[in-house]
Design goal:
mainly alpha
Amino acid sequence: MQQTNQQNNGSMAQPPMMISSKDLLYLTDMMSWNLNVVKKANYLAKDCQLPEIKQAIEQVGQMHQQHYQKLLNLTKSQSNQTVH
């Protein structure tokens, strides 16, 4: 019997050590989307006159900036490994 990373219900017990080139393309797309939201949030917050709304927009921008950074770090670590 071959040992796999999948449990009986089809979900993975742990992520694979490497990601595929297709998954890397998905991650790159997500990075672009997050960066786009960061830029739009910064643009909107700059002109916002209501402090509560401005703060909410800034928080959204910061959240997407953090997501972008996490994805960037993941793709950097994967670029040092062979991708299938």
